[in-house]
Amino acid sequence: MEFDKNKHIEKMAKPVEKLLAVLKKDNISFAPNDGDNNVVFTRDGKEVHMAQHSFYRFSGISSVYKEKGEFMIPVPVTDEMYLFDFMKPIIYILLDHA
For 30-41, what is each residue's pLDDT tens digit? Predict the structure, then answer.
């Protein structure tokens, strides 16, 4: 089975829309493609290009672990968790240092 990036991007549409709504409140704009397979975030004249591969999690973290007594229990990472817990802080950091 071959990976279809367009179908994957469609699958992530709702969590991406939620994230973009939050970013918009902080005056961060989004462009889904710069022609080089990057997404673009812009704020206050600063621009950050991020690989679509990273932003849309074409591959990447699928679980985290939480402690339960002596054991570590895997917790699946949802698309929304990935975007809000991992990508959102990275976007803010990159824009703050652009």
Answer: 999 999 999 999
